[in-house]
Sequence to fold (683 residues):
Amino acid sequence: IIAGKNARLGNFPWQAFTNIYGRGGGALLGDRWILTAAHTIYPKDTPSVQNTSIDVFLGHTNLEEIMKMGVLPIRSVFVHPDYDPNDLNNFDNDIALLELENSVPLGLNLLPICLPDSETFYEKGLMGYVSGFGTEDQIIHDDLKFVSLPMVARENCRRWLSEKKSEQVFSDNMFCAGDKTTKKDACQGDSGGVFAVKDETGNRWVAAGIVSWGIGCGKGYGFYTKVLKYTDWIKGIIEKES
Amino acid sequence: SIPIVHELYGEVTSPMYPKPYPNNYDDTREIVVPKGYSVKLIFWQFDLEPSEGCFYDYVKVSADKKDLGRFCGQLESKRGNPPVQKEFVSQGNQMWLTFHTDFSNEENGTTIFYKGFLAYYQAVDMDECSAQDSAIEENSGLRCEHLCHNTLGSYFCSCRPGYELQDDEHSCRAECSSELFTEASGYISSLEYPKAYPSDMRCNYSIRVDRGLTINLEFLEPFEIDDHQQVHCPYDQLQVYTNGKPVGEYCGTRSPGIINTSSNAVDVLFFTDESGDSRGWKIHYTTEVMKCLQPKSLDEFTIINNLQQQYQFRDYLIVSCKTGYELTEGNQKLKSFTSVCQDDGTWHRPMPYCKIVNCGAPQRLPNGNFEYLTKEGKNTYQAEILYTCQEPFYQMANKEKNETYTCSAQGTWKDKHGNKKIPHCLPVCGKPLNPVVENQR
Fold:
C-alpha cells in the first residue's frame, strides 16, 4: 500500500494474507471462503508450478501474529474459468475462490465482507478502502496498511491508459480507482485484497473490487476486478460446495 | 336215537307221516340246536291212539333232563293227553322226542288208522342273562359278576366302572389305576360309593381338559375315608395333585369342600388297605375358563386400552402411554405393547411402565448456543431451550434473534413450527466492530 496508514485490529477483519507465489491478499466470505485474485494462483509472468502450496492466514493485522495463528488448510481452489494466465496484457476475470478445509470462528478480528449487489458501489468518486501487506516504496512491511481511494470514471481510466500507451486490456469486468494527484495506491503484495466500500444504507462493508493490476505503483490509477460481475459465479460455487 | 344236529329249524314227523304209523315202533329223536339257543317245538298235527295215561302209543318230549310231557290222542279231542299247549321250549339246546307204538290200533275189533304227528322245531335265542339264576348256570359257575348282556346265540359279561373283567370273562375286579376324564365336567367317586369301597385299591383318576380351562373340585357328602385319631391317614388316603404337584391328602369324615385347582390337569389318587368299610367319596368336578389377574398400571402415565372387568384365556390387552411418555420394558423402549392371557392364568409379558420421553441433550448449534428455559439440564418432554447465535458475528438465517425448541412427545427437539432442524447461524458480513474511521480532515 502506497501512502497508506497502518490498520488497527478490527478495521479490516476480512483481510487475508496469502503466500502462494509470493505475498498476496484476500478477503473472507462467510466463514469458509477466501476471495482473491486469480493471478496470485496463476501468475502472469511466472511459469505455474504444480502443487505449489497455498498458505492462507486470517485474523490479525501483523504478519508475525497472523502467522502464529496458524495456516488455514485449503480444501479446494476455484479459479475463474475465463482467466488466462498466458495473456500478459489481459487481467480479465482475475478472480478466484479458495475453500478452507474448516470454517473459521468469527470474532472481533475475523469477519467476512459482503458481496456487492448494485452498480451504486461503482459510482465515480465513491471512496473505497484498499488494504494489504504489500510493498510501499520498495519497503515491505509486516503490518497491514490501508489507503482510501476514489472510484474513477471509466472514461478517465481508459484515457489514462492511453496516455500511458499501455496495451493492457481494460474490460467491463474491471474498474480503476485512485487519484493522480496523490501517490495513494495499492502495490505488489496487495493483489487479491479487496477494494471495500461502505454501504451507508445497509451499514455494511462491501467488496466492490479485487486488487488486480497497475502500471507501477503510486503513479496514477490502480485496476481492480469488478466483483459485481462475478457474484453469480461466486454464489454458484459457494452454494454448490456447501 | 337219531340226533338232528345244529339245524336252526326243521320238521319232525312220525314214520310214514301222513300215512298211519307202524305198530311196535320205538325211537327217540334228539333235536340239537347251536349252543346259546333253546329248542322250540310246535305240534301242528297230532293224531295218535288215545289211551289212559298214554299207555299204548305216545310221544314223549324231554329237555333239560326233564320230561315235558307224554302225549297221545288228537289235538281236538279230550281223549288221551294231546299236546294242547302245542309249544315246548327247552332251556338248553337239546330236546328229545320219543315215539312209541304198541302192537295194534284197534277199537272194538276194528283197526283204526292214526296219521301220527307233524311237529316243527326252531332254534330260539336263549337269554342267558335272565337264565343266570337257573340251576344250570349256577352249576356251571359261569355267572356274570356284574353285568350280563345277551346276544343272539350267546352272551357276554361286563363290569361296572372301576372294575375290570377277568380272564374268566365273568368275574370283575376293581381296576382304577388309570381312569381318565376329559369332559368339561363330571363326577368321580370311589367304587361302590356311597357303599363301602373295595380294599387294596391303587386308583388314579386323571382329569385332563383343554388348555385354558381350570378345574374345580367339589367334594360331595358323604365323605368318609378310614382315618386314625393320632396318625394322619394311615390306612386309606385320597391325594390330589395338580400338574404333578401335591395339593392335599385327605381322609376322615371332614370333606375338603371345594378346591379350585387353577390347573387343567388334576390327578386324584386313592389308596386303600386290606380292610375298612368307609363309604368313600364323590367329587363333582367342573371347569371354567382360566382367568388372568387384573392388570395394574405401574405408574400414572400408563393407559390400558379398553380395560375389561375380567380377562380370561386368550384375552389380550393393549397398553399405551400418555402423551410425552414412552413404553419401556426393562431398559428397552417399545413401539407398542400387547400382552396375552395365557392358559396358566399368567400374562405372557409383564406390564411395561411409561417413562417420560427424553429428547437427549440438545444438538450443539455451530456458532451459537442454547440455554434451558425450563430446568437446567432437563431434556425430557416439554422441556424448553432457546437457541441463539453468537452475535454480532453470526445471526440466524431467518433473521430471528432466537428460536425456542421444545422436547416433543416424539423424543425430538422441535421449534414452534414442528421442525426438528436446528437453526442455522450465518456469518454476518461487512460489519466490523472496529471499522476504519478517519477523523483528520
Notes: Helices of chain B lie at 135-140. DSSP finds one helix and 38 strands in chain B. Confidence is low (pLDDT under 50) at residues 135-139 of chain B. The two ends of chain B are 175 Å apart (CA to CA).
